[in-house]
Please model this.
Amino acid sequence: MPAEGAMHVDGGVQLTRIHRAFGPVTALADLSLSVAPREVVAVVGPSGCGKSTLLEIVCGLQQPDAGTCATEPAVLMPQRDSLLPWLNAIDNAALARRVAGDNRETARAKARPLFEHFGLEGFEGSRLHELSGGMRQRVAFLRTLLSGKPVLCLDEPFGALDAITRSEMQAWLSGALAEEPRTVLLVTHDVEEACVLADRVCVMSPRPGRIVAEVEVWLDRPRTATDAELVALRQRALEALR
Ligand SMILES: Nc1ncnc2c1ncn2[C@@H]1O[C@H](COP(=O)(O)OP(=O)(O)OP(=O)(O)O)[C@@H](O)[C@H]1O
Ligand SMILES: [Mg+2]
Model:
C-alpha cells in the first residue's frame, strides 16, 4: 500500500514542488523530480542538502510541508546500518517479511534463495560481527528487496565501505538490477558511483535542496569508471555540483 498521505501512481515516482522545513532550517525548497518505472536515478548533493529527507518523503516516513509526492510503494535502505545485532543474518533479512505479516518459517523460506543467489550461502546463521562490511550491506539490501516494494530508495548504500569493496558492491548491484529491474532512487556523495550505476544523475543545490542539474548516462552496462565517456559525464556532474 502507498504510505499514508502519499498519492498512488501506476509507475515510478513523481515529486512536485516539495517543501520541507525543520523549525528555522529549510531542508528542501521547491524540489521537483520524477523517476520512470525501472529507471535508476542517482541523487548527488552536498552534505546536509536534504537527500535523506527526500528519500524519507518518498517512503512516507515524513510528510512534506507543501508539494506532492505520488509514488508506487517505496522502501528505504537507510543511511545508517539498521541491521539488528541480536538477530542472525537470515532473520535480519527476513525481517522485511515478518513486518509484512509472514511467520518466521515462511519469512526465512523467502530469504533463503536470495542468500544463495547473492553469494551469502552458508552465512544464514551467522551473527553480524562474523560478516564482512560488504556482506552486511548485502544482507541489508536483501532485506530491502524482500519487502517486495517496486521502488527502492537506497541512502548511501556503500558509504561505509573501503574503495575496493565499494567497487565490487557497485558491480554486484548493477548485476542485481540488470537481472531484476526496479525503480531506484540512489543517494550517493560519490559522483563516479552515480555515473557507474544510474540512468540519470540529479544534482542537488546546497540547502535548501532542490534539483539544479541532470546528467543522462546513456552508456551501456556494465560500465567502467575509467571509460572516457563516463569520465566526461562525471566531469559534467561535478561541474554542476560546484
Ligand atoms: N528530524 C530533524 N530535525 C531537525 N532537523 C533535521 C531533521 N532531519 C534533517 N534535519 C536537517 O535538515 C537538513 C537536511 O538533512 P538531511 O539529513 O536530509 O541531509 P543529507 O543531504 O542527507 O545530508 P548527508 O549528506 O550528511 O547525509 C540538515 O540541515 C539537517 O540538520
Ligand atoms: Mg543523508
